[in-house]
Write a structure and sequence with these properties.
The chain has three helices and four strands; from the N terminus they run E-E-H-H-E-H-E. It has helices at residues 25-39, 52-59, 79-83; strands spanning 14-15, 18-19, 65-69, 88-92. A two-stranded antiparallel ribbon has the order 1-2. The mean pLDDT is 77.
Length: 93
């Protein structure tokens, strides 16, 4: 018998030989939604509610902070690229 878990795609870097890592998050989410349709799976990871970060901070006080990036910027696979770009920032609390 095969694996009995659930599969919920939320991002894509490579698919069928195509590299999406330099595409924006908006472009990648279109591909992910197409994958979900083909697999007949729901897309569960739309934009979080505006108070999501506040709730995370309240319930997970051990977090140092969060790394965020501009939604229109491409994926950066290394930390060096994060810190040398205006597209990424680390928010500490």
């Amino acid at each position: 018998e095969g694996w009995q878990g659930q599969f919920y795609p939320f991002d894509v870097m490579r698919l069928d030989g195509a590299d999406y890592s330099q595409h924006s998050a908006q472009e990648r989410v279109v591909v992910v939604k197409e994958i979900c349709q083909r697999l007949r799976r729901p897309f569960l990871f739309d934009r979080p509610a505006d108070d999501w970060l506040v709730r995370c901070r309240e319930h997970l006080p051990k977090w140092e902070g969060i790394v965020a990036k501009r939604v229109e910027s491409p994926y950066a696979p290394t930390a060096k690229e994060w810190w040398e770009s205006d597209n990424w920032c680390k928010l500490k609390w």
